[in-house]
UniProtKB/TrEMBL annotation:
This is Purine nucleoside phosphorylase. It comes from Vulcanibacillus modesticaldus. GO terms for molecular function: copper ion binding; hydrolase activity; S-methyl-5-thioadenosine phosphorylase activity. Its cofactor is Zn(2+). Gene3D superfamilies: CNF1/YfiH-like putative cysteine hydrolases (3.60.140.10).
Length: 278
């Protein structure tokens, strides 16, 4: 069964029902390219300010999504993604960074964690692997952006380590969801990518790399990130993985490779709504 379930009412987006059953005040999801104001290469629900789209369209798209998932736009929190493995702990003073201007985003950060309510962590994608983290006992949520470089740097493992260090999470309680990204069906790479992965990652799944015998390989980054998480101690049954390929779904999802770099970005998000009774 697909982990990420699409909700079409009133704006198409993916959710993780198994997680929201655990925490009803949790909002977690992944957007599509449908239902926004952007035009041209960014048609239509582009949520990233850094790709050349009109700022007013991007902000309107973000505000539309926020109105649907039940957060104030003040909570929308953005980092500058650089394909690294730096993780930032987001507290109230960092809440809302980057929501109006990319220059205000949290600098040089590909992983975000918080245990504070009314902060919506966001991250941006057009083929890279979105990683979602949840500790339902400690009420900790997080996102990480894992392209091939972030995968080599084992950002998934770094997120687990940060949850244990900063929030005293038990590894056995941590849940991870691996979201829609480019699939092995569409992701051909060369030794420049494969060699660092083989050097960095223990117990690489054999079927995650298909050797085409011409110096090129078909790569499954989702499976490799799952193995990194297993190596870090996350229970196999606590890892959910999407089967969706961004490149195979042009009507639904942006893809950097398919669209030759001229494209918008989907957003992953996660946050806990504030208890109105408090």
């Amino acid at each position: 069964m697909e982990t990420f379930v699409i909700n079409n009412d009133p704006l198409p987006h993916f959710t993780i029902p198994s997680w929201t059953k655990l925490l009803p005040d949790l909002s977690v999801g992944f957007s599509t390219r449908i239902g926004g104001q952007s035009v041209g290469n960014y048609d239509s629900m582009n949520l990233a300010l850094h790709v050349g789209d009109h700022k007013e369209h991007v902000i309107a798209n973000r505000q539309k999504l926020m109105s649907i998932i039940g957060f104030s736009y003040d909570a929308w929190t953005v980092a500058e993604q650089i394909h690294g493995n730096h993780i930032e702990i987001i507290t109230d003073e960092k809440r809302g960074r980057g929501r109006f201007d990319q220059k205000d985003a949290i600098p040089a950060t590909d992983g975000l964690l918080t245990d504070e309510p009314d902060i919506l962590l966001t991250s941006y994608y057009a083929d890279c692997v979105p990683l979602f983290f949840l500790d339902p006992k400690k009420r900790v949520v997080g996102l990480a952006h894992a392209g091939w470089k972030g995968t080599v740097l084992k950002i998934a493992e770094k997120m687990v380590e940060a949850m244990v260090k900063h929030y005293q999470s038990s590894i056995k309680e941590i849940r991870v969801a691996i979201g829609p990204s480019i699939g092995q069906c569409c992701y051909e790479v060369n030794h420049q990518v494969i060699d660092p992965l083989r050097e960095a990652i223990d117990n690489l799944p054999q079927d995650a790399i298909i050797d085409k015998k011409n110096g090129h390989f078909d790569l499954d980054l989702k499976k490799i990130n799952r193995q990194i998480l297993i190596n870090a101690g996350i229970l196999y049954e606590n890892i959910e993985i999407s089967s969706l390929c961004t490149s195979c779904n042009p009507d639904l999802l942006f893809s950097y490779r398919r669209d030759q770099g001229l494209t918008g970005r989907m957003a992953s998000w996660i946050g806990l709504r504030r208890d109105e009774g408090v």
